[in-house]
Design goal:
Two copies of one chain form a homodimer. With 144 residues, chain A is of the alpha+beta class. The first copy, chain A, has two domains: 7-88, Winged helix-like DNA-binding domain superfamily/Winged helix DNA-binding domain (Arc Repressor Mutant, subunit A); 96-142, Ferric-uptake regulator, C-terminal dimerisarion domain (Dna Ligase, domain 1, 2-Layer Sandwich). The first copy, chain A, is built from five helices and six strands; from the N terminus they run H-H-E-H-H-E-E-E-E-H-E. The first copy, chain A, has a three-stranded antiparallel β-sheet. In chain A, helix 1 (7-19) packs across helix 2 (26-37) and helix 3 crosses helix 4. The radius of gyration of chain A is 17 Å and the shape is globular. Strand 6 (127-138) of chain A pairs antiparallel with strand 6 of chain B. The structure holds a DNA duplex (25 and 25 nucleotides).
Chain lengths: 144, 144
DNA sequence: GTGGATGCAAAGAATTTGCAACCAA
DNA sequence: TTGGTTGCAAATTCTTTGCATCCAC
């Protein structure tokens, strides 16, 4: 599961951290680069393990992700299976997930047109409206 | 926060428990009746407290909700605030939530037409497709 | 009567925190 | 140099579990 970040992700993580006014440290950079390189939400455990044995403490991963979340760099997702996952928030690519209820594989659905529903929410007086939308089903591989 | 279940909810909880083949006990009945009477998802803590001091153990609430979930009577929701909530699953009334990001008040949005998106998921080979959709915003009361 | 349900307390898992050492700016 | 960050271990919180007792059927 251990992976090294791509040069591109390393550059972008640097840029993002500086842009958010966060000091650039090794754990922060590597965690963010991992999220940039790999699509889909990951558990804290997965992220920690991806960096290789002993690269940094699990508590550090929690702390970094907590800060990223506060700065709007990542968001937490919950797919109903008791595991919290973090995902890089790419404002340029709004999308949703399709989660296989059997094997838990996550794929993306890029198309999203629920502007109509969001405007109904705005009509009720809400401001700064956003949404989460996840699909669940049994993927082709998991069907008998 | 203590409330007593309505007669209607008491009847329906009995019916639902029997229908699912669950023994009818006081805690099960009162927990289910609470979820039937009050709309919106509630945390385990809220449900426990709603039944009054010492009515039943917190562990019992966890156990009951876990069984209800297995039987498809309730579903867990996660709104990104670290709190897991349980909601009665009314198959006859599919709806979504609007959660105020400030005061956390939950209201419902009954209209839901994302059949088009669900069919896109089915086209990808998924079966038993379902979805969750939540809206977040600042409600009128919480705006300056 | 009997198997399943509950209360209580203890265990377990996930996450957070205190503090000294360390590192980025 | 200095304030912010990390590692480590302990603490906290949330949830689950073992077991004796109790209750629904």
């Amino acid at each position: 599961m251990k992976t090294n970040p791509s040069p591109k992700a390393k550059d972008k993580s640097l840029e993002l951290l500086r842009g958010k006014g966060l000091n650039v440290t090794h754990p922060r950079r590597k965690i963010l680069a991992y999220l940039l390189d790999h699509h889909g939400p990951f558990s804290v455990e997965e992220i920690h393990q991806s960096m290789g044995e002993g690269f940094c403490d699990l508590a550090t991963v929690y702390r970094c992700l907590g800060q990223f979340e506060k700065k709007g760099l990542v968001e937490r997702r919950y797919f109903g299976d008791d595991i919290l996952r973090y995902e890089y928030l790419d404002h340029a690519h709004h999308h949703h997930h399709i989660i296989c209820t059997q094997c838990k594989a996550v794929t993306q659905l890029d198309d999203c047109d629920i502007a109509k529903l969001e405007s109904m929410v705005k009509d009720r007086g809400y401001r700064d409206v956003s949404h989460t939308l996840e699909f669940f089903g049994v993927c082709a591989k998991c069907q008998p």
